[in-house]
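Page 47, continued from p. 46.
Same chain as before, 716 aa.
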Amino acid sequence: MWYISLNDSSLSPAALKVCNANQVYTLQGLLEIYRERDNFRILKGSAKGQIEELNAFCSEVLQYISAFLEGSEKPETAIVLKSKKNISSNLNIIQLKQRGLISNELYCALLANDIHDLKEMKAHYDRSSNNFLSLRNIGNRKNREAIELINSVKFDRDIKEPVDGAYQEDFSIRGDLIDRRILANLTDMWAGRLKEALVGHIQNLMESLPDNGKLAEALIELYRNPDAVKGVGESKAEVLREFLETCREIWEDPARQKAYRREYMLHLLKPFLSDETVEEELEELSVERPLQIIEFIIHHSRKIRKWDHYILDNLGRAGIFTYSLNLKYEEAATELADILQKEVTVGNIKTWTRRLREKLEVIIIELLNQVPEIKEQLKKEWPAGEDFVFIDEELTGRMNEDNGTQFNITFYDILFSSVFTEYESVYQLSNRGFDFLSYVRKEQIPDTERFRDFILSVRDITKRNSPNAYRTAVDDLLPDGVLHSGKELFIQIFLYRIEGEIGISDGVITFPPTREGHTRLIDLIVPILEEQGRAMHYNEIVEAFDRKYPDYRRHSFRALRDSMDVSDMTMSLGGSSNYYILSRWTDKYHIGSIKNLIIPQIEYINEPVHFYELLKTLEPNRPGLTEQGIKQTFNVLSGTVFRSHGEGFYSLMKNDVKTIKKYARIHKGLYNYIDQNRELVDSPEVLLKKMKEAFPEFMWIQLEYVLYKYRNSRPD
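Result:
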């Protein structure tokens, strides 16, 4: 009795759930907690009702045991324990122990006698006059326990009874109650237990029997004769019957259907979670509040890492929550380095930020595909279906309120684009230049690039500063061929969403004047770049701007950067660079990301290249390019774009260049040699020649790099 499984007791499902969640499976384990604490409030997830039930249960069991030992009459209210029956013969000793079906003493004794499953126990039982006393370490008590266990097992020979046994007497399924979707979902949930043959058989029945009445008859027959399916033995027959009984209960009981939906949702969402400990929290969520589920998955997704969460909470341009802060890249890099306890550069932050939206889109799309109910529920919320869709803050605000979430406009844009893939986001096309969400059905856009040019033109016009009204023809702003139809309607609605004062009449659009005599920021920045005649770092531009225009009050720290990013008069050198130039200087500088700069150089050389050779080649025409920046690019893309050959040499993966020789490792001896010949440091050609004679195993570029590092570290 001490080792009986709590599943064989009369405890309610709610109380059993609390016990299982706290890894308490046997009566012995429960009574030990009761005797030590005299209360079950310590159990995780226990509510008042379960605590009272467990206290009463243990109290009655102890009274029952006490009365039994004293030989007195057993209490009438004593708890009733179910007997073990129909235990599967396929269980091994470890499984019996885990389920509380055998004591720890019997478990150890069986293993000591090299008995590992019930069939081996049965074989010994039959050979030894129906007992286990011949085994080592088996006394009378353990012998009685083992005999009781064997007598409770239903071995394969027992299923060779006539098919008119007890199984067919009281089992039936009503065809009018069958829900094929529930049957398919439950089959998916039970796939691991039913195994392939039964799963395939049930799926074939659903496909070949469109009539629910005939399907019900087939399922009843399968319940009575599970061995009709090839490969189904006793253990799988029991699982199948349990499965079909569960299906019937769910179809007949609306309350069970609600519980099933939660169980199935948890089953579908488990692959997304990074930690199984959060599964209980997920059970409290409902498909009727889909944004809560999405928020939960984002917080606990195995794909969202620690630095991604930091970016979501602290960088407004990447954040998806209304509480996202608006830190600068430099501030974020410093703070995140402290959190992660490793070096984090501005380039890291920019790369992670750029990839984060793609990562979120993948997670949301996978989630919508995995749980179609979430997608269906969201579709009920959105005003989709027309060629042009506009979403205002009132709708997103209401959705946040209904779901208890705090998502911002960036998130809703990702979500709408994921739910309705047939639409193009104007918010994305405009580089998020507008503070509202609007979408155009993709089939309405014959040329996405021309449509994007139109969006950017409207953005530039609405953000200009001019004391005069601006008028333009609809055809000039949105010429033929940009949209298939609805051109004037789109213009009218779209422009109204931007600014209510914008008018459209007789094919002419009128933009109102803006602040009188206000000079555009870009018109103040360009002269600064012209005076310097070279690329300038953003911080340098800000300092020069403040000196030149001390009375000018910028509305934000990023105002100058935003102005230069939007204007066609200036441009960034690209990638992680914070340097800006005039657009007409492009022939003097290397433009683009570091990756796109170094790939052509490696392709041209067509053999492993040392990163210092790339730095020497590119740095004169790429201000701000550093050794660290090149190394970071190689580290991030190593194994995908670049192949490392060791000692700072890299090639392109696609070229499949093999290392011809093993490159010598740079060591302190090189620096010591330079120190001994420091009088030649200012004559690098002579010093490098002497170094090559002293260290012939090194490549010339390696020696140049060592000299470069020595000179940069030498005090002035």
